[in-house]
């Protein structure tokens, strides 16, 4: 069995002597597979080298096998594809930054159509052709590694074209595709040039099963297949089936959850305790509104800060009694939009500090860095957790933090996160654009009595652990079990 994703478990930097040094990769997909990868069939995880340092690490590993080169992959077998497979740095940059992250990510998160973007011109065409080269090279890498009749689980939008390309190379394989993002509504999706919209859908339909994190996203995918391809679509209570060109693709939903025991074990280590102690020393007996996100446009960190400012202005009783702890993990810094967004977050945080800080009390603690133990410490001290994405495939932080919070935490959650489908009943739901509404929900969450908060936290944890990563991965394997090659 093979698992395929763009980002792998490790991300490298180069030491002064040119030796690659590894760090854990970020994002929900890596968390899920790291935690699930031991399940069942012990798959080989095939990923891409994302930087020069990654390429160097791949080059120094036999057949790109990071585990065999002695890197700590958490016991998983990992092969990192690099230049030998034809993905040179320039092609990769156009494919990853130009198409995957600026086009497909923006499309599925409704960040795509603005007065000035997108522009479909010659450079867009070059990016798309690089994306095709990257997809083909990835498919060829998988075709080489797959045993006859093997199952291949292709993950996420970067590899949206791969199932079809892989099937052309290896019709004997059983192929699944799983989307970790939302899926765009049909009208919005149709803003892509028509040929490309078709290519994306046909790419996924090359798989025997197409998985999604929430029923809404599966249903949007079915709509797109019907409207853009004119495919025959069978809708079921959740998911369904697409019949096109003589093939059938099952459309399924597996709502990825968390492994609370594993998370608690990790959060029980000394590095997390050190961070917790340091944070508590700064916070004293104030209440904590916590959030941890990648510095990502769709996470809506700016409106979250505006809501916090609104809370302090409209409910001044919280001034001096609450601290907003914001963990922002740097992400996709190659894109100017992300750099600008991060700078705006930092500016707004400084403004809030200036408006409210008093001797001995700061309204917020913002850290823009990648520190996993610190994120876990932040979950532990949360009284209120703010998760307000514009749109999110699932949002695992909404599931992780309640399981770790030592005080029991009230969750303020966007209706537009996939997680709202399972956690909505125990959360305070907000419209992510409604800053005043979010401020009011923060006020209600801070004032919630202990008994209610404890009850809601239990309900959140029950829902969050319903399908832990091992079972989520096993469900994708199961989807393929019935398929005849
Ligand atoms: C999301 C995506 C993942 C991606 C992660 C981090 O969770 O669904 O596929 O790996 O973000 O983004 P990055 O661009 O750093 O891989």
UniProtKB/TrEMBL annotation:
InterPro entries: Glyco_trans_20. Pfam families: Glyco_transf_20 (PF00982). One of its GO terms (molecular function) is alpha,alpha-trehalose-phosphate synthase (UDP-forming) activity. GO terms for biological process: trehalose biosynthetic process. It comes from the Bacteria. Belongs to the glycosyltransferase 20 family. This is Trehalose 6-phosphate synthase. It comes from Motilibacter rhizosphaerae.
């Amino acid at each position: 069995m093979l698992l395929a994703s763009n980002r792998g478990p490790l991300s490298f930097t180069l030491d002064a002597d040119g030796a690659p040094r590894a760090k854990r990769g970020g994002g929900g997909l890596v968390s899920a597979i790291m935690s699930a990868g031991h399940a069942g069939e012990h798959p080989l995880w095939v990923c891409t080298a994302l930087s020069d340092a990654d390429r160097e690490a791949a080059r120094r590993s036999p057949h790109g096998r990071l585990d065999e080169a002695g890197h700590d992959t958490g016991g998983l077998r990992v092969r990192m594809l690099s230049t030998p497979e034809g993905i040179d740095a320039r092609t990769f940059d156009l494919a990853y930054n130009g198409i995957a992250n600026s086009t497909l990510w923006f499309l599925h998160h409704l960040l795509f159509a603005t007065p000035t973007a997108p522009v479909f011109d010659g450079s867009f065409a070059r990016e798309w052709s690089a994306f095709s080269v990257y997809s083909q090279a990835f498919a060829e890498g998988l075709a080489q590694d797959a045993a006859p009749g093997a199952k291949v689980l292709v993950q996420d939008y970067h590899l949206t074209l791969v199932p079809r390309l892989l099937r052309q190379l290896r019709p004997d394989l059983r192929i699944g595709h799983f989307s970790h993002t939302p899926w765009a509504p049909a009208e919005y999706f149709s803003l892509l040039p028509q040929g490309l919209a078709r290519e994306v859908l046909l790419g996924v339909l090359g798989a025997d099963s197409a998985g999604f994190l929430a029923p809404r996203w599966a249903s949007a995918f079915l709509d797109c297949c019907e409207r853009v391809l004119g495919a025959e679509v069978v809708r079921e209570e959740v998911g369904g089936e697409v019949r096109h060109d003589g093939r059938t693709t099952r459309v399924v939903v597996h709502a990825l959850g968390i492994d609370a025991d594993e998370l608690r074990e990790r959060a029980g280590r000394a590095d997390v305790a050190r961070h917790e102690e340091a944070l508590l020393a700064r916070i004293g007996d104030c209440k904590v509104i916590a959030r941890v996100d990648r510095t990502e446009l769709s996470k809506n960190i700016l409106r979250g800060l505006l809501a916090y400012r609104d809370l302090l202005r409209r409910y001044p009783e919280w001034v001096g009694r609450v601290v907003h702890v914001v963990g922002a993990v740097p992400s996709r810094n190659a894109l100017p939009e992300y750099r600008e967004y991060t700078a705006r977050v930092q500016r707004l945080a400084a403004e809030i500090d200036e408006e409210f800080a008093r001797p001995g009390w700061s309204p917020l603690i913002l850290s823009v860095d990648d520190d996993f133990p610190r994120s876990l410490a932040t979950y532990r001290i949360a009284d209120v957790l703010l998760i307000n994405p514009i749109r999110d495939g699932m949002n695992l932080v909404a599931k992780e933090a309640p399981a770790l919070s030592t005080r029991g935490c009230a969750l303020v959650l966007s209706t537009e996160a996939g997680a709202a489908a399972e956690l909505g009943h125990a959360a305070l739901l907000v419209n992510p654009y409604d800053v005043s509404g979010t401020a009011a929900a923060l006020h209600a969450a801070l004032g919630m009595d202990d008994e209610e908060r404890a009850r809601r936290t239990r309900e959140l944890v029950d829902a969050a652990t319903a399908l832990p990563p091992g079972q989520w991965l096993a469900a994708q394997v199961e989807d393929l079990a019935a398929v005849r090659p």
